[in-house]
Amino acid sequence: MRKTFGLNGNFTLHYKDADFGEEYFSLTSTSEIKDKDTIKVIHIVEPPTLTLTFTDVESSIKSASKTCIQTSVHTSVTDIYPSISSSYSGSQDTPILSLSEHKTQRSQRWPSEFPVPRFAYDTELVLAAASEAFKKDGIQLNFTPILPDILEKLAETIFQYVAYPTSAQLSDVAEALIQKYPCLKEPGSYNGCYGWRQRLKYKMGNYRAKLRGLGCPELDVNSVKKKRAHEKAPAKNIKKPRKAEVNFLPPHPQGETEESLERERVELLNEVKRDMNYQIISEKMAKTFSIRRQEIVSQAIPVNDLKYRWPALFNAAQINEEFERITTVNLETTFMAKLDQYSPKIMSLVFSRGRSSKMS
């Protein structure tokens, strides 16, 4: 092919397969070519060489994210803001304001093993003595005097991960508690912790009521007084985070108000229209995350209004960062890792279907 048609550079050959709806497939052997078949020449553009260093995903996820996003940001800016891409002047040397700098936001997903917190000092003394007695004689502890402290500390720890725990998550907490302190196991329960799960369920309801009274936006959005006239029933139109949403409706950063964050939004809008400094935009997007979530969750503003008020959110790099702010998971890194994991199975499935079609 190279000699006959005078082809230069690297290329690959595809042939038209009638068994697959006249689609083109890579040619791997001349035996696949039939008389008067159609052959397509695909020129190969050599991609830039990339050097990958594999490390632990959990420990390197943020650094990998920032490197990937900063490398590709200029392309993203050109695609979305072509009229101002020439004025892009974002500095990549200055560290970007990270999620951990906003103490009002959650930074972890629900753990695979729930960490039982330390209780009050006197409660710990009672549990230590009861654990020794349980090991020696199997005596169960009468935990009524220390029950309020246990439930309070567990509720505080649960709320660090979710405001509305599921039954399965409450079961995780109860099982972790009796595993650490077997003396708290309930003899009459089928699994030794069903009663603890029920106590935690009601405790979380009371705990949410207390925080709602203190103005926690994630809970205040579901108060009856904040609902519309036709949604006044307490259980109607409950706004809860979905499975992956860790920071569903976070409070404003300390010292910030709606008015100050609105000023930040206007400055952010001007920055997008004027200089497109990536560093400044990332900082302001992280700072205004709480008010943006209020508009999306509480007000349910249309997409057109959202694009008008937050044009930077429709930048590919900012989509990555916003996804990580909401879920604490890096979208691009996770997607590529999963793609690498499942690619062999996908390719095997495609090849097996191709072989079976030819045999038939």
What does this structure look like?
- The chain is mainly alpha-helical.
- The protein folds into 4 domains: 47 residues, no CATH class; 120 residues, no CATH class; 94 residues, no CATH class; 31 residues.
- Helix content is 50%, strand content 4%.
- Strands 2-1-3 form a 3-stranded antiparallel beta sheet, with no helix packed on it.
- The protein is flat, with a radius of gyration of 29 Å.
- It starts with a helix and ends with a helix.
- 18% of the residues are buried.
- About 13% of the residues have low confidence.
Blueprint (SSEs and pairs):
Elements lengths: L1 H4 L5 E7 L5 E4 L12 E5 L13 H24 L40 H17 L9 H13 L7 H14 L13 H20 L3 H4 L37 H17 L3 H10 L1 H9 L5 H7 L6 H12 L3 H29 L1
Antiparallel strand pairs: 1-2, 1-3
Helix pairs in contact: 4-6, 5-6, 8-9
Task: Give short descriptive properties of this protein.
360 residues; mainly alpha; 50% helix; 4 domains
Task: Please summarize what this structure is.
50% of the residues lie in helices and 4% in strands. By secondary structure, it is mostly helical. α4 packs across α6 and α5 packs across α6 (194-213).
